[in-house]
Fold:
Amino acid sequence: MRFPLWPRRPRDYAVETLEPRHAGAIAAIHQESFARPWSDVEFAALLGQEPVFGYLVREAGRHASPLAGFVLARLAAGEAEILTIAVARVYQRQGLGWKLIDAVLRRLHAERAEALFLEVDETNAPALALYRRLGFREVGRRPGYYRSKDGDSTGALVMRRDLR
Ligand SMILES: CC(C)(COP(=O)(O)OP(=O)(O)OC[C@H]1O[C@@H](n2cnc3c(N)ncnc32)[C@H](O)[C@@H]1OP(=O)(O)O)[C@@H](O)C(=O)NCCC(=O)NCCS
Structure:
């Protein structure tokens, strides 16, 4: 006898503020996502800087569940920038990238910031789709900005989201 395949219950995710103690876990997610990963020491140093803040997302209601993704941003003189964002591969396409940027936008609105900027590889289709859906617009391009391990280079798009 064959058992029916029940659809998986949608999971609940909780957003928490990033702290220096999360540096190791977010470095592991970053390493999975980028050709040039940042170390846990670099993340700990960034998280110790006053204008830098960020959020992590993990499954809610599970004790010490693994991190699913994180975002790191910096706010200075009314303008903010996303330093990096990554969602672990197994958790992608479940709305977590959106949830993380939404948390950043809420904080920036509360702080009355004027604009949020980011840089993205022009060939990174998932990230571009997410940012465009969130209202970011291209305001510049840096040719040859990113270089892969095999020496190829791609341009960066500079994107801006108005907050007022
Ligand atoms: C970019 C990234 C953070 C998106 O995270 P995510 O949790 O998978 O994104 P979400 O599930 O919140 O997606 C929200 C929307 O973005 C768009 N999107 C996200 N991933 C997409 C993909 N692979 N293809 C097309 N559109 C995509 C869709 O419009 C999606 O909405 P939908 O699922 O209702 O269609 C994730 O792909 C990632 O970590 N990539 C590797 C690291 C990286 O590239 N970071 C960005 C550097 S600038």
Remarks:
- The chain has a mean pLDDT of 92.
- Residues 33, 85-87, 92-98, 120, 124-127, 129-130, 133 surround coenzyme A (CB under 6 Å).
- Residues 97 and 126 are 10 Å apart (CA to CA).
